[in-house]
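Thread: sanity check for a docking pose with flavin-adenine dinucleotide

Original post by kr_44:
Hi all, I'm comparing my docking run against an independent structure prediction. Below are the sequence and the ligand SMILES. Could someone generate the full complex and paste the structure tokens? I mainly care about where the ligand ends up relative to the chain.
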Amino acid sequence: MKTLNTDVSIIGAGPTGLCLAYALAEAGLQVTLIDRQPLESLQTPDFDGREIALTHESRRLMQQWGLWAHLPSDEISNLRHARVLDGSLTKGMFIEASLGGQSQLGWFVPNHLIRWAGFQQIAQHPNVTLLAESTTCHVSTTDQHATVTLEDGRHIHSQLLVAADSRFSQTRRALGVPAPMIDYGKSMMVFRAEHTVAHDHIAWEWFGYGQTRAHLPLNGNRSSVVLTLPQHEMEQLNALDDEAFNQNISQRYQYRLGAMRRISKRNVYPLVGTYAARFHGQRFALIGDAAVGMHPVTAHGFNLGILSVKHLSNRIIKALNNGQDFSAPAVLRGYTRDHRLSSLPLFAATNFIVSLYTNDRARLPRQALLKAANAIVPFKKLVATCGRTK
Ligand SMILES: Cc1cc2nc3c(=O)[nH]c(=O)nc-3n(C[C@H](O)[C@H](O)[C@H](O)COP(=O)(O)OP(=O)(O)OC[C@H]3O[C@@H](n4cnc5c(N)ncnc54)[C@H](O)[C@@H]3O)c2cc1C
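Reply from moderator J.T.:
Ran it for you. Here is the predicted complex with flavin-adenine dinucleotide included:
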């Protein structure tokens, strides 16, 4: 069977795999990108309900790697400020962009368009080989190289193997990296809605009792509705016809956005998080959700994923410039260090928020903490500048 030789093989052509393929190909490395999805799905990904809140740093990196220029301007929505509410609180914590020295906190861009933009960047790149509809059946590494074997019998030899195959990464498991999974026991529904009251480009995270609601402001009187419920309640909601569904949602949001009407398909995701025990090993590294799978409540999954691409590609490019082996243990150790520093505090803070604000017996501490946080300007400054972290 045929053997392909390449510098770097990446398993997973999701947003992070695509960004890394481009960054390394631009640095002169030959990259082979492997995904089990058919070419058509990678070329024109379907709308999947996710609107990704991008920080200033993520936008800068997407500009640097050429993705930003592909995004249709009417699909980029401004995130000016954010409000966090609990139960019946009408004010809660208000995070103003100016606290972080910016005119806005970030931007919303649909996930499928990030994938589409990433695909545009690698599609014609002379240093990238894309193997679509390719399922891996075996991966292994030695101190000399990594080998990926596909189900059709082809072998891919590379100096470095990168797993970018989601939080449920089979590559991570095959390489023997433990990654405890946290099942949050809830499901999240996402869809676009029109509403009669203007949102002023202020996002809300509204913790309730038995449910969590959020709305992410999109251009016009439209928002992405993000609703978290136990699975059995989600199934009941999903079974409603259009009229009953719209009424149910408007009521859940207590008409704060007026009457709401769903204008896209609804997608439901199980809420599962993970944090890999290490982000590298002999001739391999983990990036994106395969390294850190965040709960979406703080909207930082892809923002951390793109940071993992920055950290790994910077280490690799530095080694190349110094004429060193770009997948030597010291290079990969440096990557793990950088990415752990960026991700661990945020992962821990996110899980703390989830555990407190989904505990319906802690109503008083929840509201007290939110009021206190709103009064502590340095804390709010920290939250507002989170997106500027380099
Ligand atoms: C509802 C929701 C809302 C979110 N909102 C935000 C937000 O506002 N801000 C934010 O920063 N993040 C957000 N996220 C997180 C963000 O979507 C993820 O962090 C991001 O998509 C991860 O990208 P990835 O490339 O690492 O993995 P994925 O997007 O999961 O892509 C993995 C790729 O690997 C491929 N693959 C998997 N297994 C194999 C295999 N065995 N062989 C070959 N290919 C394989 C898949 O086909 C896929 O193309 C949200 C997530 C959800 C669920």
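The chain has a mean pLDDT of 93. Hope that helps with the comparison, let us know if your pose agrees.
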